[in-house]
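Here is an idea for our session: we take a single protein and study its fold together. Which protein we use is up to you, so please pick one and set it down. Once you have written the record down, we can walk along the chain together:
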Amino acid sequence: MSNDSQNGYSLFGHYINGSNKEQKESKEISPTLGQKAAEKVASFVGSWKFIIGQSIFLFIWVILNIILLSYAWDPYPFILMNLFLSLQAAYTAPMILMAQNRQSAQDRSVLYDGWKIDRKINHTITEMEFDIDGKLQCQDDKINQILDILRKEKKEEKE
């Protein structure tokens, strides 16, 4: 490991440790209370635990209202149950969409940051290619000069 890399510089002289003007802190903004609630609701409603629990609850609701025909609080066609399910859908759907929108915004931010890093890396690689090409051209010129000197010496020896 070279002394430069111990001081925080990479092999190509770019500073890799510490803060850089172009290096920005994470853009992640802490979620609001509504966003946190939307994410929790979306993760719970999208779980097997919720689906199985709600299925069992609805099954018990229907069975009790069929068995307790004379004391049923929601006789067939279960209008009260449909009302509760409609209210549940009316409130959970927007919350799920809010959670998806937040996730999409986070994904876009991550992709944009990756794109910026890729651009910077491509720019650095291009600079390195030009630098290497320049050094190779300089080496070629020196080798050609040496070959010319050797050829002249060989001609002089023949004469």
